[in-house]
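Assemble and predict.
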Amino acid sequence: MLSVLALTSMVLLGIASQTTAIVVYTSWERHALVGTDVRLSCSFFSWQWTSPDVTFSWHYRPDGAKDSIAIFHYAGGAPYVDNKGPFRDRLEFVGNPSRRDGSILIKNVDFADNGTFTCDAKNPPDIAGRPSHVRLLVFEKVPVQAGVITGAIIGVVLGLLILIVAIYYLMRFLVARRVFSLSMSKHGKKGKGKEGSQQKCTSVLAVADPVKLKAAASEKKKQESRREKK
Amino acid sequence: MLILLAAIFILHITCICLLLAATIHNAWWMTDTMSTDIWARWILIGGKWSYTEIPGHYPKEYLQVVQASSVLACIFCILGLFVFVAQLYTIPKGNRFLFTGVFQLLAWLCIMIAASIYTDIFHKDKEQGWYGASFILAWISVCLTFISCITYFTLRKKLA
């Protein structure tokens, strides 16, 4: 009986110690463009209350390297940023430890920052747990540089050009038609003075079809020039 | 007369080629490891040329104006060629090629705007480097399109 009690209590203790293991969460992978800032988030789950002695530490292992270096440490309520390594002046602590957030911000990433970042959080008395890794991939963006202003300027100028040409030809066409229809209505009203109006008609018609006349003239010119060229 | 016609034609086509080269080739400003321009930047990394983005500190509006006006110059020059051929066959004898001249004038204006803005705004700090091929071609196009425009405004159609 006593042995069973001892056994169950030990098992319970074992389970309890497992449940008090801290679980650290980060992203799996982060993608960033060269020159931008990237925020690596890290938070943890713990059965204990968030202690004032909570610590966060970040390590960095470059792609292809075997060892990792420490780049950030938060302890005793104060963040300590790396000021000698590859991230000096580029690392900023943007987390909120009282809210279990130990995120860091890396500014102006470059291709040399490709690698694995490891976040380790400890919440005393809850210190047993596995750190979590996030992989940083730095990309070049395929440039799509022509922006809105470029397209707008091109579109507006070409649109204006087409509009002006269209209005020009429309005006010519309308003027010709208007004069033509005016002469027709005059011809219709004055039924008696046929000859006079007929003369007017033909002269107006002659003026009113500049387009057709021009076409005829240019046809002649074309043939002339072709003949002369030959 | 035919020789004159051929010369004008060749001048116009040369303008088009130079404008297209200046607009498309990314070489307005160069250093030993970099060839940058109005669309993108080529950087020599580890013996290989990589196509990357123009950095963010460039004044964006001016860059886009240079892009837009150089593209417009190309468009106007190409349209001018077609208008020239059309006018060659349609205008009456003794008239000038005004429509074509207008297109060339617009092309001249646009490429001059592009080249001037680029010269005045970009790379004003004492950076290492020199102006590249596209920049030089742009300024040569300014001169050639101007000559072409004057030619069209003064030339009269005669029969060969």
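Residues 60-90 of chain B form the longest helix (31 residues).
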